[in-house]
Amino acid sequence: MERLYAGAGELAISVGWLAHDSGRLTDARSHYAEALATARVTGDPALEAHAFCNTAFLARDAGRPREAVRAAQAAQRAARRLASPRLLSLIALREAGGRAWLADRGGCERALLRAQALFGRGPCDDDPEWMTFFGEAELEGLEAQCWSALGDWGRAAEHARRAVSLQKPHFTRNIALFTTELASDLVADGEPEAAAAAADRALGLLNQVTSSRIRRMLEDTARLLRPHGRNASVADFLARYQQAARESPV
């Protein structure tokens, strides 16, 4: 029976993530709450940690950074009952993201250092199965998001580049995500030509990716690049982007 409840809870989280990635944040919140309720009824710390971890991510994306920090801290309390440094590392990154959006640079840096130290302990048999995506590339990408939120665009771009270069080829969605983030960081850092090149690479991956979130991010980057349209590289990207949007709305 416990395995049945755990499976139902993990299914709710999976459905919640699909809603989150497609921009249906209220639906995602409901599914994560369902998983959390299941975890608490059954006393399942692994499911509870997963539900709170995703809730922290959702809260950050929804513009509720204080809730993101609280959810990450709750996830940490549940995860301490497990034996997975990698899980604690990911949760620390969720906390760092919330603190970055609160402009709490010191708290963010402390959470990042904790995440790096925990990640450095390596994988183990107790790592949850759903964490297969969490490798060095994801670590770099999530750190890039923190520096971006803090307005340190140069450092954000540095980590985003590493995330792209370290990502395994079969994780096409994550390559598109980190490449789009790199483009956004570069344009904010005053490098429109490099940003256009990165955005163009991300655009080329969109036909392999079904993520409304990434498409909205690329749309925002294109909007930020328009004032630089006199640059030939930027103009070429914007023309390709507009053509792609006409053929299949981005």
UniProtKB/TrEMBL annotation:
<dbReference type="InterPro" id="IPR011990">
    <property type="entry name" value="TPR-like_helical_dom_sf"/>
</dbReference>
<protein>
    <submittedName>
        <fullName>Putative tetratricopeptide repeat-containing protein</fullName>
    </submittedName>
</protein>
